[in-house]
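Revision sheet: structure tokens.
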Amino acid sequence: MYPYEIIFDMGLYEIMLCAGVISAMLIFRHFSDKRHLSAKLHNFVLLNAVVTVTGGYFSAVVFQAFYNYLGGEKFEINQGTGATFLGGLIGGAAVFIGVYFGIGYFVFRKRDREHIKMFPQIADIAAVCIPFAHGFGRIGCLMAGCCYGKVFDEPEWFTVRFLRLDINDEVIGYIYALPVQLYEAVFLFLLGAVLWYMLNREKKGLLAYYMIAYGVWRFFAEFLRADDRGSTFVSFLSPSQLVSVLMIVGGTVIEVLHFIHNKKADEK
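Predicted:
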């Protein structure tokens, strides 16, 4: 679409990624104030988020390199490797949890383990932040021309023209594809809005809702995708579909445990 550099050597892809990170930080600030998180916990989470974004992006690239390897390519990490959101989500979640509970143990040991008591609320706020940040990222994918949908020989009313570039970023042709990135961005913004509303209504367990909703969406959206991301040991599932199934199962388990916990609390 428009992968060219615009400002500070950044194209719209990088600009949209930055917009996504900023939107997540603003949303977190909004709800941390509403939930009266302490300044220390607020700042700790924001610093953790910086480490998480860095670790998550590295994980996204490593996962993509692994997907490429499964697809018969050489395992290598360079500027052309690409990145996959679900790989970044898994790696980023691991980094966040490791820092939050590992370093948080020492940071909050004199504050009655505040970070542990407030973790469910942090998770609920994160469930709102993630889809908005991801939505901007998907718009960036649209601009970069990656993660596109099924390709058609001729332009149709439901397709978007994507540039075909050579290794020097020179235009060598066009393809006409479904703008799956745009579909997903719309879905993510709607999901974020619904979760925002639920959080305002003091609903809990939103991270499980996010995992299930996005897992279902991504599983079926893969049928519209045309950019091959490799294969898995389950022959009929793409890597993203396999991770989506795990997200749905994980979110369901979390929700069931949350339901059991609430039921026992009501019985006391």
